[in-house]
Every structure is written in structure tokens, then in C-alpha cells.
Design a protein that fits this description.
Layout (H helix, E strand, L loop, with lengths): L1 H5 L19 E6 L6 E6 L4 E6 L2 E9 L8 E11 L15 E8 L5 E5 L7 E7 L6
Antiparallel strand pairs: 1-2, 1-8, 2-3, 3-4, 4-5, 5-6, 6-7, 7-8
């Protein structure tokens, strides 16, 4: 996963359920800027996610703030709990146990977000675009 490589940091690994109407719940697509690869994130209300990136398929557990901070960022952490051992869009193989921390900033529409290293827009990936009609 591109994000696992780009946003490495210490993070807890226990999934925690989120409310069903939390903006993170759903299916999200991130396409590399050159269009050569995409990642799909299926974020579930039970605090787990299924992520596909090139040939990689990974399962993660995540924690995310229930509400954003005063600047609109949600702090989140994610830990890989299962991986098929295949290469992701960056050509890397993720390791089970690898954890990432990041800050999510949603577009006012709720249909896009940026994932940032800190609670600022100085170093972010995105946009992640909601995939309508896809099951989580």
C-alpha cells in the first residue's frame, strides 16, 4: 500500500467500531497521479478495512477520531493484520504488524478526502474518492 510506505509511524493496532454514519465508512479509491495503479480501501464500521493495491490484498484494523479537530482533521491509525505477500502500487510488500498514523481531511461533500502526515495540508496524499454503490 502506498500509504503504508508513505505514512509510517507508531500506531495502536486494535480495531474499534465507529458509528455507522462516520464519514470514513465506505469504499474509497486512490489513483496514482500518473494513472498507472489504483488502491481501493473498504472501510468498515467494525474498525476493519480491506485494501487492494496492485496485486496486494491486505486486511487492517483502524482507529479514527469520532469528530474532527478544530481544523477539520481526524486523527487515525491503522495496522496491517493480514497480507497476501504480493507487491503494492509502489512495488513494495507490506509487512503484517506494520502500523501507520495519519490525519484525514474530508471535502465538505463527504465524497473525497486527503490523508496527511500531520494535521496540516503540507504533506498529503489524495484525493481518495468515494465509490458509490460499492459494499464495504
Amino acid at each position: 500500500m502506498i500509504l503504508a510506505c508513505a505514512l509510517c509511524g507508531a500506531a495502536p493496532g486494535n480495531a474499534a467500531p465507529v458509528r455507522n454514519d462516520h464519514p470514513i465508512v465506505g469504499t474509497w479509491r486512490f489513483v496514482l497521479p500518473d494513472g498507472s495503479c489504483q488502491e481501493i480501501y473498504r472501510m468498515r464500521a467494525d474498525g476493519t478495512a480491506l485494501i487492494t493495491s496492485a496485486s496486494e490484498v491486505a486486511e487492517t484494523e483502524f482507529l479514527i477520531d469520532d469528530q474532527p479537530d478544530k481544523n477539520g482533521f481526524y486523527k487515525t491509525s491503522d495496522k496491517i493484520v493480514k497480507d497476501n505477500g504480493k507487491k503494492d502500487c509502489s512495488g513494495q510488500v507490506a509487512e503484517v504488524g506494520q502500523a501507520v498514523s495519519s490525519f484525514i481531511l474530508f471535502h465538505h461533500s463527504g465524497n473525497m478526502f486527503l490523508m496527511c502526515l500531520q494535521a496540516s495540508m503540507d504533506a498529503c496524499l489524495g484525493p481518495f474518492v468515494r465509490v458509490r454503490g460499492a459494499e464495504t
